[in-house]
TrEMBL record, chains A, B:
Domain FAD-binding PCMH-type: 32-211
Cofactor: FAD
The protein's name: Glycolate oxidase
PROSITE patterns: FAD_PCMH
Lineage of source species: Bacteria, Bacillati, Actinomycetota, Actinomycetes, Pseudonocardiales
Length: 459, 459
């Protein structure tokens, strides 16, 4: 590593064992990881290029990392690798209100970009649950989703251009700054969601929207997750376009109540939270129509919240669900996406799978676009429970595929969904993936062992 | 070709010289083309696979073709090639109102899909000017744009999944049917806009929207293209999101008047046509705000059209501009896209370029997203005028790049923008393109000579 230290300004290369230990893994439960040989915290794209070129020369694996908030092990270290930690590159280089775009370094935190845009009357929509901590670079690498996707799409829908360092150490610009453009292949979209296996992102140009209308909230309490799932289907069938449609089940409500004493679980088995940002009377009408869908699907209580504080409290419960569950023990988070017409059936199957494997499963879901996050709960140190949860995890993935779904809606393949990817894609399509990977990373140094089951495995 | 004839059902392989002649080129002016050895009109994906495998075995170039309405030479035949004409595969296999998607064969005509969706209360937005004739497969291969892009995005924004035959003759499914999904690389987006060089599209799964609100129209008459360009910038600066913002200049208005006697050119040098589909009072407010932008930017006359017939007539003039100009002689159509803040400047530069090269240039533009279509007019058979027009074409491309634009906004690279692509992209990025192309088409049989300047050139 002395050579690498000499190639970079002082302080960039970290080899302290405690530091290395803190960069070994992301937030995925039970995904394998090794200890890196070094962590590099570059400040410029050129420094990233120096690191990748060094690693290419020496055949050292490169593991790019943003904030490490991923849930699939995509940023987990491989033994002996160099972790390129991009969280120090956090300049918002430009916000252009006329062209409605921003140019940012990869380490800019999602919420920070949103706040900076809001100051200029603009809106950066993608809002993963990790938005207070996760970085734009990581969001791009995983094509992160969030609550607003049901109406406004995912991270990739907002990426106009990228600067990346490829596996051969080339520093290249992909994409454009114009509203439209078809000059060459869409390599920008190819890089989005490639989880660090095709290039290290050193700059992102994102598309912005004008500030939107304030949202109206509709809440429905349902007697079961399946009933709530039917309401989701009813909303889609009615041709509504909610700006959010989130599901929180009893397990989550109870965990939040146990932590924050919000009194939610007394009244509901499952809560569905809808929002609309259609303007004026159209928004009123859409909120009313959503309420009617909830009621028709069997809501025991439903209400259009005229009180913004009350509405925010309900959404806070949704945000708090994951940390509230984590207080109780290890949480293995699923991330499947099924057709909207299969949400109710899939939620029912998740319950059955929990019973079958004697595993407690809580559910939050971006229900409006069929993206479910069953959360498999175990007790710390209970090895048998861990194995049961992992078996349940595999069953959920398999049954999602049976219902025409995908093994990952927004968290990425990383390490946890590599077998799922093989189950989802034809062998010929996996071969195309490998051919494309080899085109951009011929030495196979970029995040090896992720996405694909070939390559150097982490331990 | 006897071998190929024997591999397919009767009637699929056409070798009649008159038929071959009619499949030599698309609608691009002055792009080179050769005569195909055969035209195949397959009826199934498996038949396409048979053709590609035959061509791969024998090293025969494959040129995929939809309706042949392209404007960059992307579907032009190479001497001795097999043209795979997909316009016979025109089944709409499925329209799913709940999941809001449709599955179609590549030869389905754009307007036919839109009409079929409308019957079920759904909307397929992408609306290139060729929509009465062009096919979804061709739209996907070129990532076609249109009028609604300024608010609703381009073809690629609506492609959920593809079935394609790769250059090695593999028949594969890419993408998904769910609203979200990040399982593997986004090869779907990679294929979109790849102009037949990465695969032959045999099926397309498109995302649909609910039917939208009726649009309101605002028309502005301006004393110059530059003044109209300033109004476009004003609309963007005001944070408005028109559902259309189209520009038609004096040359076009006069040509339409000469043909249809609509009396447009008496009052205006340049017309700007804005639309909004925001619902209710929000739409009223947006139309008023657009009107105010037009007036402030120097419109000599502007009006919110309360009369749908009048509004439709103005948009008809925009649609008629291209055929009206074609009546007068060969039209070389440009397709650049610049930042919205540079629209006025670029329009002024186009005028200067016309003067400099003694070439008459008319303008239509999807002005709201900076996508300009200067149309270079010549007299039939005037060789010197052709050379002057081609020099002007090159200057427009170069100056668009100077202003931070792209060499093609929506028509594709094909043959006409190959030099432009080299000017726009870094050599390292072109190398990535070639590496990706070789990954999917290792024998380089798919539409050779298009996009890239390497490979077998057409003559």
């Amino acid at each position: 590593m002395d050579e690498l230290v000499g190639l970079l300004p002082p302080g960039r290369v970290l080899v302290d064992p405690d530091v290395l230990a803190s960069y070994r893994h992301d937030e995925a439960e039970w995904a394998p990881y090794g200890t890196p040989a070094a962590v590099v915290r570059p400040r410029t794209a050129e420094e990233v290029q120096v690191v990748v070129r060094y690693c290419a020369r020496h055949g050292v694996p490169v593991v790019p990392r943003g904030a490490g908030t991923g849930l699939s092990g995509g940023a987990n270290a491989v033994a002996g690798c160099v972790v390129v930690a991009l969280d120090g590159m956090r300049a918002i280089k430009e916000i252009d209100p006329l062209e409605k775009l921003a140019v940012v370094e990869p380490g800019v935190v999602n919420d920070d970009l949103r706040a900076a845009c809001a100051e200029q009357g603009l809106w950066y929509p993608p809002d993963p649950a990790s938005s207070p901590w996760s970085t734009i670079g990581g969001n791009v690498a995983t094509n992160a989703g969030g609550v607003c996707c049901v109406k406004y799409g995912v991270t990739g829908d907002y990426v106009l251009g990228l600067q990346v360092v490829t596996g051969t150490g080339e520093l290249v610009r992909l994409g454009r700054r114009t509203a439209k453009g078809v000059a060459g292949y869409d390599l920008t979209s190819l890089l989005v969601g490639s989880e660090g296996t095709l290039g290290v992102i050193t700059e992102v140009t994102v598309r912005l929207r004008p500030r939107r209308e304030p949202e109206r909230t509709v809440a429905g309490y349902f007697p079961s997750v399946v009933a709530a799932g039917r309401a989701v289907e009813a909303v889609a069938a009615a041709g509504l376009t909610p700006s959010a449609l989130e599901l929180v089940d009893r397990q989550c409500l109870e965990a939040v109540d146990a932590w924050k004493n919000m009194g939610l679980s007394a009244d509901a088995d499952t809560v569905l939270l809808g929002r609309t940002d259609a303007p004026g009377a159209a928004g009123e009408a859409e909120a009313d129509a959503m309420l009617a869908c909830f009621t028709a699907a069997g809501a025991t209580w439903s209400v259009r919240s005229s009180d913004q504080e009350e509405a925010d409290a309900l959404f806070a419960a949704r945000r708090l669900a994951y940390p509230a569950l984590e207080r109780l023990g290890p949480v293995l988070t699923e991330d499947i996406c099924v057709p909207v017409g299969r949400v109710a059936e899939m939620l029912g199957r998740v319950q059955d799978i929990g019973v079958r494997h004697d595993t407690r499963i809580a559910n939050i879901a971006h229900a409006g676009d069929g993206n479910l996050h069953p959360m498999l709960l175990t007790a710390e140190g209970d090895e048998a429970a861990r194995l049961r949860a992992q078996a349940a995890f595999d069953d959920i993935v398999r049954e999602a595929l049976e219902l025409g779904g995908t093994v990952t809606g927004e968290h990425g393949v990383g390490l946890l969904k590599r077998d799922g990817l093989r189950a989802e894609l034809d062998p010929a399509v996996l071969d195309l993936h490998r051919a494309v990977r080899d085109a951009l990373d011929p030495h196979r140094i970029l995040n090896p062992g992720k996405v694909f089951t070939t390559g150097k495995e982490s331990t």
